[in-house]
Amino acid sequence: MKEEIKKRLSTFFDSYPIKKYKKGQVLFEAGQSFDAVYWVKNGYLWAYDLNKEEKEIGIQVFQPLYYFPLIALKTGGKCQHRIESLTPVEILVAPKADFEKFLAKNPQIDEAINLSIIDKFMDLTAYMSQLVGGDAYAKVAGLIYNLAKEFGVSRSGKVNTKFKITHKFIASLTGLTRETVTLQMLKLEKNKVIDNERRQVTILDNKELKRILGY
Known about the structure:
Elements: H1 3-13, E1 18-21, E2 26-28, E3 36-42, E4 45-50, E5 56-62, H2 67-75, E6 82-85, E7 89-95, H3 96-105, H4 107-133, H5 136-151, E8 153-155, E9 158-160, H6 167-174, H7 178-190, E10 194-195, E11 202-203, H8 206-213
Antiparallel strand pairs: 1-7, 2-6, 3-7, 4-5, 4-6, 8-9, 9-11, 10-11
């Protein structure tokens, strides 16, 4: 989404109340209705399900647009997953009716949101392909690549993620055990593809990371 569109959306949401959440707070449960549209001003959220053993199965990370409420706004659906704050989060909350009026007056923003949802869908399908077809090494590498692509900051040829990534978190998003994730992360570090000091992942060799994924 273009920066100009993001700025206009941010300006719209800035006139509405802000809610603050601590790290690890659950914002929505599966099956809950969205009563508003949300703009993540600061921080990150993630969506996950719980399996029969109460193990977290990660779905996606969010920032700045909160995609599930946007999809629900357009489809009338409910929240399909549990959504929790991955870091401390500040969210601006706008009533659905106000946001719908805003989009009606700004069709180019509505179109940009639709395109961003399609882009997110395409990213998810590509990632699902990696999860289904890749080995453990490729699965971990693919997750790091996708997180860095969406949330990374480039500095001196390296890409740093904006938030700390634990092995438990990677395991929940890849379907691997935490022990397997640790082995793959150590392998990526040994091959000098990433640095993982204090759980702050830095991509040292993006070209090699793409090669691992067949890009």
